[in-house]
Design a protein that fits this description.
α7 (245-256) crosses α11, α8 (262-278) packs across α11 (420-439) and α13 (474-484) packs across α14. The protein is elongated and about 125 Å long. The protein starts with 16 loop residues before the first strand and ends in a 12-residue tail after the last strand. The protein contains 25 helices and 35 strands. By secondary structure, the chain is of the alpha/beta class. The strands form eight sheets. A nine-stranded mixed β-sheet has the order 17-16-25-24-26-27-28-29-30, sandwiched between helices. The protein is 33% helix and 22% strand. β5, α3 and β6 form a beta-alpha-beta unit.
């Protein structure tokens, strides 16, 4: 048992009085932020009935005489501030008469005046830290407003001020005695507090908080609507809501089931919401308390309030009921050690831990200050009026106050970080979460719903439009094009032009040769070729043989090439005589220009559920993984993206497309397969042209290109600083499709200003077949400038995109999470890696297959998904 603290006694008035720890923090903050008004404390009341203004002014000045803190200023004395008490002061008292105006007009003007007065800056070293204003609205109708600074007044002081002011007003009117003199003053407490902090009791409190707030301390990382500025700002606003009495009773009952108060229950829900918003497993919330543990100071005006830092851990994903019991224990322990000033704790942690962050928390939960239910000044009655403040001290402050019809919640926020719409949603999520916890306290916090039905309906654009596609395999479409327009140019590669008829003839010969080499339907065949027309012959030939192609980069290191062949199960590789020398022993090489056998068997062709190709991921998240994409996956992608581009696949729109990347990355597939499926002409741009700006300019001057898929950085390297018509001449005429990395807004703006093609941002990992989301730069809602890059957009037809938490719960608008993509383009898994399949691929009860990308997405507010940062992996352009 810790020793009792000494009794507070009057100080030696011959010596300067120090500031309390709480006051010292205000003083330091004020010196660091000249003009700061965030710590102003305004109070306003509607006064109805006869009001003696002279008596009220005398009573206010008598109040300052009774409580010497109201006539105290604060000065630097060397390295420490001191209190200086004036014997007599006059409190500024202002009377504004608006009674000649209509009541509605006078009330509007009075509200504006009070807001202006509330923003008055106090000079702590010179000003009287109490000011009063009375606005006359009518003969017996007034607004009474007073403003003080937090350094002289806390929430408890409000009731004391009105109790004493009422008694002094009555006395000044000669209708009652003056209150008894006070035996102590606030400065006496400040002297006592400094001495009390060196006792064994204080050391015990400090030891508890050192343990409770041991490093590393979490710094709350909430999603914001504006970039966070390094300069502190206290500009704020609030949104409020009323929770009905029935709901409040249910909250109380939930708390009682775990031995928790209403405050503890609301704190548990508030911390849970912050955990779900931030994804952090440790949350610290500040909790202001009265700080009046000594009987001697109960009747004093002053700043005695303290703050506790409640730290809650979510790492084990507890049920809400278990978490509530945990939070209740933490609160009770904290109350046992509340005597240590918060400011002392902050300084202690800063001294011992350079990585900790003052003031330990950025978010607060507190019960709003209240005043007695009936306030009177003589015969006049007072009703509290809300003052339209514009400042707040913390990122978020959740205040609640009891009302006859329930409770009022007011969520204050910093306007340089959050939009009001986000705050309104947060209040809704808090209610949804609590109602679910009441219904089933055994629900784990990760599974508690946040979205209301109306908000869930707002996210309908996550679903791409439902469209019925024929699902024709690209191999089948190529054969049809060859039969319908055999002389039409299919592939241009340098000086070589390959028609659809020649492409199909050569591919059939290759397919028969592969069958003779032992390739059977379902096999995987390597494709080791340079980017020439032979590459497309190889693709179609492998498909006609019923196999899937595995693209291999010619300059791949020998060890990596051998690993890919082994992991993909490739036994046969389509290649050239020159490149065949790079293959390891045991691999059969089939020349791409192989002659058909004398009596070739009928070719199996492409089946919808059979693999079309296997691509290996970049390995940015670990070991590269082989992704198997079926003909059905590819067919849906081609038909879906063609619909988004307005490209008809019936042969009526023979566009020209350009491919500047390897088939080993699906970046260029947008240009390759839709163009060929539509009977257009595909330009396989030689490596020298694709990498040299001068040659690119020459190529685009001599060849019409309708569609180009390219990374922004690659395109920037090709076009340099060109603008206007010069830039437009370097671009395709219809569509510029950007992908593989984030598309910077300034660069996109320059592209559009040139008057060139439409710009489509295209996103999708290999596992979802080339791309799942698109953003039309000239049609979709304009992206936020703070984002810095184009959004990834909306899902393609029949696909879904959802942002979920780490536990798989759908996240609300504006809350970060992982991007999950679902629908008919999602691959079945990773080739030969079933352990990774379960990690990334999920099938929901409705049978929809989802791919969990792991990319962090932050915003869902404008109808387009927007990334928190750049994509994890960028596709490299290879020759």
């Amino acid at each position: 048992m810790t020793p009792a603290q000494p009794t507070i006694a009057p100080r030696n008035r011959a010596e300067p009085a120090p500031l309390s720890h709480g006051q010292e923090l205000f003083w330091l903050v004020d010196r660091a932020n000249p003009g700061l008004v965030a710590y102003n404390v305004p109070r306003a009341f509607r006064v109805r009935g006869a009001l003696d203004l002279d008596a009220l002014e005398r009573a206010i000045n008598a109040l300052a005489q009774r409580h010497e803190i109201l006539r105290t200023t604060y000065h630097a004395d060397g390295d420490h501030p001191i209190q200086v008490v004036s014997e007599v002061i006059r409190v500024p008292f202002e009377l504004i008469d608006l009674s000649s105006k209509p009541l509605s007009a006078s009330l509007a003007q009075a509200t504006a005046l009070l807001k202006e007065r509330a923003a008055h800056h106090f000079d702590l070293s010179r000003d009287v830290l109490l000011r009063a204003t009375v606005v006359r609205l009518g003969p017996d109708d007034h607004l009474f407003f007073y403003l003080s600074h937090h350094i002289v007044s806390d929430g408890w002081s409000k009731s004391i001020i009105f109790r004493d002011l009422g008694a002094l007003y009555t006395h000044e009117r000669g209708m009652g005695p003056a209150p008894e003199p006070l035996p102590l003053q606030f400065a006496d407490y400040a002297v006592w507090e400094r001495k009390a902090l060196v006792t064994a009791d204080a050391e015990a409190h400090l030891a508890y908080w050192r343990n409770q707030l041991a490093s590393p301390l979490p710094v709350l990382d909430l999603p914001t609507d504006r970039p966070v500025s390094a300069a502190p700002s206290f500009d704020g606003d609030h949104s409020d809501v009323i929770w009905p009495a029935g709901f409040v009773a249910e909250i109380r009952q939930l708390g009682q089931s775990q031995g928790a108060s209403f405050y503890m229950t609301l704190l548990t829900a508030w911390q849970t919401l912050l955990h779900r918003y931030s994804g952090q497993d440790e949350i610290i919330v500040g909790s202001p308390i009265a700080g009046r543990g000594q009987e001697e100071i109960e009747d004093l005006v002053g700043y005695f309030a303290n703050a506790l830092a409640f730290r809650t851990r979510f790492g084990d994903d507890p049920t809400f009921g278990d978490l509530l019991a945990r939070v209740a224990d933490t609160c009770l322990d904290g109350y046992e050690h509340q005597e240590l000033p918060f400011e002392r704790l902050v300084m202690e942690l800063k001294r011992n831990d350079a990585t900790s962050h003052a003031p330990l928390f950025q978010v607060v939960l507190t019960m709003e200050d209240t005043v007695p239910g009936e306030l009177t000044l003589g015969d006049a009655t007072l009703t509290p009026v809300e003052v339209p403040l514009s400042g707040t001290k913390f990122d978020l402050t959740l205040l609640f106050s009891e009302r006859p019809d329930g409770i009022r919640l007011a969520l204050w926020f910093k306007t340089d970080r959050f939009f009001r719409t986000r705050i309104e949603r947060m209040l809704g999520h808090l209610e949804t979460l609590l109602r679910a916890a009441i219904a089933n306290p055994g629900t784990r916090v990760s599974a508690l719903p946040l979205l209301s039905e109306s908000e869930a309906a707002q996210l309908a654009w996550w679903q791409g439009p439902a469209t019925t596609f024929p699902g024709v395999a690209v191999a089948t479409r190529l054969a049809a094009r060859a039969a319908a327009t055999p002389a039409a140019p299919a592939v241009v590669s340098g000086p070589t032009t390959l028609t659809y008829g020649a492409l199909q003839t050569q591919a059939m010969a290759l397919g028969q040769a592969l069958g003779s080499a032992g390739v059977r339907p379902g096999d995987r065949v390597g494709l080791l070729l340079e980017r020439t027309a032979d590459l497309l012959v190889g693709v179609q030939g492998i498909w006609l043989a019923g196999a899937a192609y595995v693209p291999l980069i010619p300059d791949l290191p020998a060890a990596r090439l051998a690993t890919l062949l082994q992991e993909s199960g490739v036994r046969v590789v389509v290649t050239t005589a020159a490149l065949a020398t790079r293959l390891p022993a045991g691999i059969t090489a089939v020349p791409v220009d192989a002659a058909p056998p004398p009596s070739g068997a009928p070719l199996p062709g492409a089946q919808p559920e059979a693999l079309a190709y296997v691509l290996f991921t970049s390995g940015s998240t670990g070991v590269p993984k082989g992704v198997g994409v079926t003909h059905a996956h590819l067919a849906h992608y081609v038909e879906a993206v063609s619909a988004r581009l307005g490209l008809a696949l019936d042969g009526s729109m023979p566009w020209t497309g350009a491919s500047v990347s390897t088939l080993a990355a699906d970046l260029g597939h947008t240009a390759v397969f839709p163009i060929l499926a539509a009977g257009g002409t595909l330009h396989l741009i030689p490596t020298a042209v694709a990498m040299e700006p001068a040659q690119w300019a020459q190529y685009t001057a001599h060849h019409r290109l309708d569609l180009l898929k390219i990374t922004p950085s690659h395109l920037k390297a090709l076009v340099g600083d060109a603008t206007g018509p010069t830039l437009a001449a370097l671009l395709p005429q219809r569509w510029l499709v950007l992908g593989g990395e984030a598309a910077p807004l300034p660069f996109v703006a320059a592209l559009r200003a040139a008057g060139g093609p439409r710009v489509l941002n295209h996103y999708g990992p290999t596992e979802t077949t080339v791309g799942a989301c698109t953003y039309l730069a000239d049609e979709e809602p304009a992206p936020a400038e703070t984002l810095g890059s184009l959004p990834i957009g909306r899902p393609l037809p029949n696909l879904r995109a959802e942002v979920r938490s780490a536990h798989g719960q759908v996240q609300p608008i504006g809350v970060p999470g992982e991007l999950w993509l679902g629908g008919p383009q999602v691959a079945q898994g990773y080739l030969g890696r079933p352990d990774l399949t379960a990690e990334r691929f999920v099938t929901d009860p409705a049978g929809v297959r989802w791919y969990r990308t792991g990319d962090r997405v932050r915003r869902l507010s404008t109808g387009a998904l927007e990334f928190l940062g750049r994509l994890d992996a960028q596709v490299k352009v290879r020759g």
